[in-house]
Amino acid sequence: MTQSGMHRFFFLLGKPASGKGTQIRRILDTFKGSSFSTGDALKYHIARRTELGQQVKAFIDAGKLVSDDIVMALFRDSAEHLGDTTIGESTLFLVDGFPRTVGQYEMVKRYLVEKKIPHSFLYFSVADDHILRRFTGRLTCNTCFTPFSTIGGTVAENDACPQCKKGKLIRRSDDNETVVRNRLAEYRAATAPMVEHITAHEKGNFTEIESSRSEDEIFNDVRMLLTNAKISLKKR
Question: What is the CATH classification number for the domain harbouring 18?
Answer without folding.
Answer: 3.40.50.300
